[in-house]
Design goal:
With 485 residues, the chain is an alpha/beta fold. Helices cover 36% and strands 21% of the residues. The protein is built from 13 helices and 22 strands. It is globular and about 75 Å long. Bound molecules: adenosine-5'-diphosphate.
């Protein structure tokens, strides 16, 4: 087993440039999901610490907003370099607390660096407008300015890159941040504090707190100094935060749950579809909001696809993420295992046929077998509910119209995928799908250059792309009169 670098395992919170414990001195234990071992603790902070962090961010904002776009761009370039110089240590830490394979962890850390580099570039392009005036003696300027203090709340499935998408644009625009990483995976979040220090980000610009979600979230949403809340997590908590933010009318960005369909048409390249299916489903043990939730397969190739998917899923190497060769790590905890089990039980009761996996893995703990369920029916729970685990239900459809209707029949609208070699069909289906992200003959499509964000109950706002910076900016209209023209 690898000797994990302790360098980034910071067991303290960062407030106003100081690494501190909780006021109460209380801590929370952090587990390695692959072994159940306690790997350390983090402070159990609450309301008072959060208020101080917000006030520190507000104070830091007074100077930070005056820095030039070029200075902030250079700061982000240094942050990018600090991440890449430490990619291996950060990946090991991520795998240790989250469970994902080292290959995926390295990829996630690389993705974090890519977002930071993207925002280093975008920092210099937040252009305003000079608008032709309807008045002879007045001129119209439209400028962009940082919104102020932003607060970010992030989940455990991508504890590094979800913060890159929020800290990156905050620094790029001159905002300051209060960050709450998920309690299960706090170290990859706290590492951003160390990296920001290395990159010369001024004290108070990035503040990071661990502890009670409801107390920290409560103060963040109540405090009028916070001008924007950016959240990635469940739709349930997202709705709660939206309600809480209403009282102080904050800007919000919400990256919430998904129910991704993966459509395979009779004319698809089957090899490519199976390869894409494995990546789109079993990545991070099925624990991503863009993971396939429903495979919809056209009748003529249904049996072939099911056989091939079952074969490929069964061949995945399950193990401790830190061991070389592991393709699927453990689930995050035993609650996740029970949730997956109950969905399988429901499906089997309603006629689903397990053709791969189906039960806890012989490794024990929260390891689970990559599972494929044929004969999936609409009345099964995963038709409506997000699985967040390594189960592939495979439904059958006959026509293109039916496929689009089935795919859209959900309150979610984050990612979807489809496989066809017919160009006309590709356009028809692409235009018919009510989703924020569409993969055509591709199963993994996230990249810093493109806008990530859902339709319907999957969220509000975009992260990445040139769109990703807009939510961190206020647009100001200035009318200059009395010019004597
Ligand atoms: P998941 O199901 O992925 O754990 P959650 O929405 O429960 O998603 O968690 C995502 C993030 O939201 C985590 O950092 C979690 O601690 C935080 N969170 C959970 N409940 C609340 C709450 N009531 N207020 C603010 N943050 C919360």
């Amino acid at each position: 087993m690898l000797a994990i670098s302790e360098q980034f395992k910071k067991q303290a919170n960062l407030i106003a440039g100081e690494w501190v414990g909780a006021d109460s001195g209380e801590t929370i234990e952090v587990n390695n999901p692959a072994t159940g071992e306690i790997i350390g603790t983090v402070p159990n902070s609450g309301k008072a610490e959060t208020r101080r962090a917000i006030e520190a961010a507000q104070e830091a904002f007074q100077n930070f907003r005056k820095t030039s776009a070029l200075e902030r761009s250079q700061m982000l370039r240094r942050l990018h370099d600090a991440i890449m110089d430490n990619q291996e240590s950060l990946a090991q830490l991520l795998s240790l607390e989250q469970g994902k394979s080292l290959v995926e962890a390295r990829g996630e850390v690389g993705m974090s660096a890519a977002y930071v580099l993207w925002y280093a570039e975008e920092a210099r392009r937040t252009y305003g407008d000079v608008v032709p005036s309807p008045w002879r003696d007045r001129r119209i300027l439209v400028t962009k300015e940082p919104v102020g203090v932003i607060a970010a709340i992030t989940p455990w499935n991508f504890p590094s890159s979800m913060l890159a998408r929020k800290i990156g644009p905050a620094i790029a625009t001159g905002c300051t941040a209060v960050v709450k990483p998920a309690t299960q995976t706090p170290y990859s979040g706290l590492a951003w504090g160390l990296l920001a220090e290395q990159a010369g980000v001024p004290p108070g610009v990035v503040n990071i707190l661990t502890g009670s979600a409801s107390q920290i979230g409560g103060e963040i949403t109540r405090n009028p100094l916070v001008r924007k809340v950016t959240f990635t997590g469940s739709t349930e908590v997202g709705k709660l935060l939206l309600k809480q933010c209403a009282n102080t009318v904050k800007k919000v960005s919400m990256e919430l749950g998904g129910n991704a369909p993966f459509l395979v048409f009779n004319d698809a390249d089957l090899d490519r579809a199976v390869e894409g299916a494995i990546a789109a489903k079993y990545r991070n043990s099925g624990q991503t909001c863009v993971c396939t939730n429903r495979f919809l397969v056209q009748s003529k190739i249904y049996n072939k696809f099911v056989d091939r998917l079952a074969e490929a899923a069964s061949a995945l190497k399950v193990g401790n993420g830190l061991e070389e060769g592991t393709q699927q790590g453990p689930l995050i905890d035993m609650n996740a295992v029970e949730s997956v089990e109950s969905m399988i039980e429901d499906a089997v009761k309603k006629g689903g046929k397990i053709v791969a996996g189906g039960k806890r893995h012989s490794l024990g703990g929260s390891f689970f077998e990559p599972t494929v369920i044929a004969n999936a029916k609409l009345r099964m729970r995963f038709t409506k509910e997000e699985i967040f685990g390594p189960i592939s239900p495979v439904y059958k459809f006959r026509s293109e119209e039916e496929a689009i209707e089935l795919a859209n029949n959900t309150n979610f609208g984050l990612a979807c995928y489809f496989y066809t070699q017919d160009l006309g069909r590709a356009y028809r289906v692409m235009e018919g799908l009510k989703y924020g992200l569409v993969g055509v003959n591709e199963g993994v499509i996230t990249t810093a250059e493109a806008p990530f964000g859902g339709f319907k109950e999957s969220g509000v706002g975009k992260e990445g792309g040139h769109q990703g910076i807009e939510d961190y900016l206020d647009t100001k209209y200035v009318c200059i009169g009395g010019l004597g023209l």
